[in-house]
Each structure stands twice: as C-alpha cells, then as structure tokens.
Design brief:
Radius of gyration: 13 Å
Structural class: alpha/beta
Shape: globular
Order of helices and strands: EEEHEHHE
Helix content: 25-40%
Number of helices: 3
Oligomer: single chain
C-alpha cells in the first residue's frame, strides 16, 4: 500500500498525519520531559518522523514492504534524508539512524518529497 506521511514539530509538541486510499489518521503528542523546550524545531521534526513512523508500524497502518511517501517541508531534512548530505548535529544523526533502522527492518519503500510549509497537513495539529 502507498502512504503519504506528513509530520511536524516545535519545541513543545509533535504531530503526524498518515494517509492512504482507505484511511487518514492524525496524532499529536506533547514532547517527553527530556525534549520539552530543549530541542530545536528541526530536531523536533526528526523526533516526529521517528515517533510517527514507529506508531504507524505499531498500529499496523504501515505494513512490511509498504511504500511511504515522506513529505518534508524543511530543505535541510530533504538534503540530509533524500540526498544523503551529512548532518552536523549529533542528535539528528542519532534519530536518522533509528529512522533508517525502522525502514530497513520493515522493508519499507521510501520516497522523499519536498513540499511547501503550507502544504504540511500535520502543522495545524501542533500544540502551541
């Protein structure tokens, strides 16, 4: 199955939307205490990508070998994930390792798409 995966994050919370031809699921989470007001917006987006992907797999929305179209509204994330450019932030490097682990373990087919911020369906879910 093909999924569209939107996600966003700020210093206080993360959100994600997983859509396919059959369903649309939305989730929002407040950051854990060790991240709340301690991570940058970019770091928060990596957390949202990791947690939401893990959640989607755990809820059997995303299944082994599915195609996941990851919608990125941050050029630096697109450059790092889609074009394999080096990230200098150890936190981002660590999150990326976990994201790639999930992808590899489940045999997911990943397609990265750079979108405009106003096209990100998860942004409106963020807690302020």
């Amino acid at each position: 199955m093909d999924h569209r995966y939107y996600f966003d994050g700020n210093t206080k919370s993360i959100s994600w939307v997983i859509e396919n031809n059959e369903t649309r699921l939305e989730q929002t989470r407040t950051h854990a205490e060790n991240y709340y007001d301690l991570v940058s917006t970019e770091q928060s987006k990596y957390i949202a990508l990791h947690v939401g992907l893990f959640w989607g797999i755990g809820r059997f929305v995303i299944k082994n070998s599915d195609t996941v179209n990851i919608m990125l509204d941050l050029k630096s994330m697109f450059d790092h994930l889609a074009e394999n450019k080096i990230a200098n932030d150890p936190f981002i490097i660590s999150k990326t390792r976990f994201i790639h682990q999930l992808i590899d373990q489940r045999g997911l087919q990943i397609k990265y798409h750079l979108i405009e911020s106003h096209q990100n369906r998860a942004t409106s879910l963020l807690l302020q």
